[in-house]
Amino acid sequence: MHHSKESPLTTTRTGTATASIPTQSTYQSRVADYWNAEENPVNLELGRIDDMYHHHYGVGAADRSVLDEKNPARRDERITAELHRLEQAQAELLASHLGDLKPTDRVFDAGCGRGGGSVVAHTRYGCHADGATISAKQADFANSQARGRGIDDKVRYHHRNMLDTGFASGAYAASWNNESTMYVELDLLFAEHARLLRRGGRYAVITGCYNDTYGQASREVSLINAHYICDIHPRSEYFKAMARNRLVPVHVEDLTEAALPYWELRQEAAHLVTGIEDTFVTAYRNGSFQYLLIVADRV
């Protein structure tokens, strides 16, 4: 792995390679603080099922029969497992759009969280994966998971800013963001992806965005922003920013309907609710908020 001279590497006690984070603003420091402190059951309990930790939502039809379970403890377990299956399905959906990857290829997981997406991509293609997260705690956790799986020679996580990674230009065959674009300016993000991707490389993003034709961001979108300390972008801005940064969409899919069952099931999961569930369901149903998959080629 090549590192630019601007990002000297140091190694933490846990062995995680970390670069200086030169572009970390006050806002980004707050985001890092949030994720360093985050211990949400909806993220941790689901991951404990099979040591696959995702920091995004889920798509697909939900098996609502889990709600009929009479034993309360068993009911919680079954709901947790079903939510985890839907999150895994989303990670698999994104990975399936990364192109025809070979084991020698490198992929970049931007805003990797606790690392599940990189594991999914590596398992599917055998490729090398580099994940970047602004949270040192997440990077350490994800690296320990990779070591436990015996894949740390191919899958590595870095405490870095995804807008300024220090990784080598043109070194990656594919890259993605899964539910992390709302923390950054899209032009800065897509410029870094375009720099990292080789010509013809594939970029994929799954994200919530607000529907421009609705007008300004709705009350629900504002509540989601406040809950996650993020700034949800309008749908049109994704396509404009891609066009300005050598990324040409080749596949666009509206996942809003596919995302609803996940949130409707979370509404019923008293042991996992975070208080934002009703807001997501309302926003999806009233059309002010959409869940999109955009796949683009780097030209």
Low-confidence stretches: 1-22
Give the DSSP E fraction (strand runs of 2 or more residues). Answer: 15-25%
Distance between the termini: 24 Å
- What is the H/E order? EEHHHEHEHEEHEHHEHHE
Radius of gyration over alpha carbons?
Answer: 18 Å
Count of helix runs: 10
- As an assembly, this protein is single chain
Helical residues, percent: 40-55%
Let me know the average pLDDT: 89
User: Structural class, from secondary structure content?
Assistant: alpha/beta
- Count the E strands: 9
The main sheet comes to:
7 strands, mixed
Name the strands of the widest sheet in spatial order: 5-4-3-6-7-9-8
What form results from the Cα inertia axes? globular
What's the arrangement of secondary structure elements?
Elements (H helix, E strand, L loop, with lengths): L8 E3 L5 E3 L6 H12 L3 H7 L24 H24 L10 E5 L5 H10 L2 E6 L2 H14 L5 E5 L12 E7 L7 H11 E14 L8 H10 L6 H10 L2 E8 L1 H12 L9 H10 L2 E10 L1
Parallel strand pairs: 3-4, 3-6, 4-5, 6-7
Antiparallel strand pairs: 1-2, 7-9, 8-9
In short:
By secondary structure, the protein is of the alpha/beta class.
